[in-house]
Design brief:
By secondary structure, the protein is of the alpha+beta class. The chain contains 2 helices and 8 strands.
Length: 165
């Protein structure tokens, strides 16, 4: 009887060890993100959007995009203001769920615009996203400030000493 009891205890211990080793390698079940699928609404393209980002030298710059989308025709018109304040007229047409836009001036490609959500657009070729803002809150880029020119350049005292020798 003692032998059978010892064998059962040993078998139980081996089973527990095997389960512990297998359990550590087992992956946790994946959690599926619950995302609500929103119906595509092309009228979301209409609005004023800003894209603010670093200028690479410690400041920030803002691009402004103003779009007016006509749902009946699938055509959008608007203007794009770059970080330097230069305004260019653009127009585009709806292709699938994307708005393909070109510059009115020369017909060059501007961007393909995708709706991320009701307040955010993604423009292919642009870093970051364009966020919806009120038209009156759109930050107009300030023109470059005039650099003050000092007519008389300061003279290094060491140069004055050399000049006198």
């Amino acid at each position: 009887m003692k032998k059978i009891l010892c064998i059962l205890i040993a078998a139980l211990a081996m089973t527990c060890v095997a389960n512990a080793q297998t359990g550590s390698k087992r992956k946790a079940p994946r959690k599926v993100a619950k995302t609500a699928v929103q119906a595509f609404n092309p009228s979301t393209f209409t609005g004023t959007y800003n894209n603010t980002y670093s200028d690479g030298v410690g400041g920030t710059v803002t691009d402004i995009l103003v779009l007016n989308f006509d749902v009946a025709t699938g055509i959008a018109t608007g203007e794009y203001t770059n970080e330097s304040g230069i305004i260019k007229k653009i127009s585009g047409k709806l292709v699938g769920q994307k708005l393909e836009c070109t510059y009115d001036e020369d017909g060059d490609e501007f961007a393909t615009i995708t709706i991320i959500n009701a307040n955010t657009l993604k423009l292919e070729g642009f870093t970051g996203t364009f966020k919806r803002v009120a038209a009156e809150d759109a930050a107009k880029p300030a023109p470059d400030a005039a650099v003050e020119v000092n007519e008389e350049a300061p003279v290094d005292p060491a140069f004055e000493l050399l000049k006198n020798r």
